[in-house]
Amino acid sequence: MVGLARPFGGALRRRPVSKPAQHAGFFFALRALSGNVGRLVGDPRMRRHLTKLLTT
After folding, report:
1. How far apart, in whole angstroms, are the C-alpha atoms of residue 29 and residue 7?
2. Structural domain count, the chain
């Protein structure tokens, strides 16, 4: 998880990236994190809440 997120952050910091690409990177990282959190918590409502936060 962290191994996947780190290169994204480094690449974004080193050189300017188009807004859509930047957003996609953050979205995928957050989505993966929210999926893990939802699984750990075991509460579908929590996952739905996180998804709503990410998509707005």
Report:
1. 11
2. 1
